[in-house]
Protein: SUMF1/EgtB/PvdO family nonheme iron enzyme
Organism: Autumnicola edwardsiae
Amino acid sequence: MKYYFTTILIFFAFAIQAQKLFETPPGTVRVNDSLYIDKGPVDNIMYLEFTDKVKDLWNLTLHDSLKSLELENINKSLSSHSLNPEQSKEIYNKIILAKNQKISDSINILYYFNHPEYQYHPVVGISKDRARLFCQWRTDMVNLKWSKEIKDDKRKYKKIKYRLPTYEEFELAKKTMEENNNLLLVNQNSPIDLDLKKLLNEDNFILLSIPEFTTSNRNFKEDSPKLKNTDKPNDDYIFFRCICEI
């Protein structure tokens, strides 16, 4: 019995230590053992990096080739997978923001998206298809980064996948962060007032007063009680964030 009890203690000690070694995906907080979620909505500077990288460095052919590879083999395989300039151009044309939509009386969406003053403000007016492409690109960028570090780093890395959260996962994240006292409620309604860099700290999970969606084929349940009548979001100010599977 004493031996059995000692074995259990050793097992739990090892499990706790192993969990500490696993790297938290960039920009996220832990929901449970396999899910992490962005601390706040995706901001303009993150989406701008996405549009810049797609021009020359990323497309779906490359994404598909990386999905089946183990983390330690991803970086070595890059030289054997040629990029497809035509496909990259096609994706770029889909993801750039070309709307002249007004955010305020004096600011339109393109000015808001490109001006340095708003680089840490939530990206707005993004469709679900664009958001999905962003998640796929982000998956590859983080896995590539970790594949380069894995040989020379004592921390343990696991292959990850970014995607859009389900309604249930978003509700679970809110509940978990509230229980952990990491929930930061923000009441500003306009993206112009939402400087995420000033709001975020190491553990904060920012919950906005506007429900988070994308502008087409919305990710969350349309029949949710939270979306009835005046709670339905304004299409002008629709944000998104990613969830990360490990």
